[in-house]
Amino acid sequence: MDLLQLHYFCTVARNEHMTNSAKELKVAQPSLSAMIAKLEKDLGTPLFHRQGRNIKLNHYGRKFLRYAEQSLLALEKGRLEVEEMAGLEKGIVSFVAYSLPRFRDLLRGFLVRYPNVQFRILQEGRMDHRVSLLEQGAVDFYMAYPPVTKEGISGHLLLTESLKLAVPKSHKLAGRGSIKLEEAKDELFIGLKKGTSAREIQDGFCREVGFSPRLVCEMDEPAAISSLVSAGVGVAFLPPQNVDRNQDAFELLEITEPACVRTLYLAWMENRFLSKAARAFREYTIDYFSNEARRKF
Q1: What is the pTM of this model?
Q2: I need a surface site. Which of 39, 140, 160, 183 has the fewest CB within 10 A?
Q3: Going from the N-terminus, what domains does the chain have, and what CATH number goes with each?
Q4: What pLDDT, in 10s, does the model give residues 229-244?
């Protein structure tokens, strides 16, 4: 048994698909299958239930996965600590988020201060997938909505922001300035795909006032929503911070009822080593949003 086998096994266990895992690992599928088969032979028992290309961990596989992940995380922690002891000045910071434009100015400012640091950023809409990436050690941080409340995960509330209702300039509601959300119950909405945390938050606001939004378009990319509002396709929830100040194709209406607010959260694993670069990014991020909140007032 070697480290490569453990790494391959953890990847296959996470994806539950041999072909997708082979693509992610950049190896031929037969080689990956042979590596997993050799690991199972070394352990003396199958680790997966196989159904074509789809595979699922069995009882033995789930037990072994826990120790395999712990072993790989321990080795990665050791590597990072040795690098830091050796005075490594540059590093890599990784995080998972969904609405990436929200962090554009944050990343720019951090890189001005720490030009030798590199980023590895993953975009993921589902909260459970983001948390899983954090727990697996695939990323240093989770930066998204809503907050994470789970044992072993620490975090910091960065920002609470109000969502507005974006309507085209030609829309009957344009010029109102504010609106009760129930007044939009008959409108066609543009939103993110079902299952994303942002969509669940927004659907919850609508349910609170007694309706389910009629989705005319469900999208993968949050930044593209405003362009369809501008085209007159429908209305949408938007945070004012994500809107180009120079846009004039749609209006943002204040939602007076209910309070449509969401909380941006930075999370990390409590007992996992963070590199010097990651710790600097955490401190910078908390200061950045603290200063942003003060600027609003």
Answers
A1: 0.62
A2: 160
A3: 3-81 (1.10.10.10), 89-154+264-296 (3.40.190.10), 164-259 (3.40.190.10)
A4: 988 999 999 887 656 5
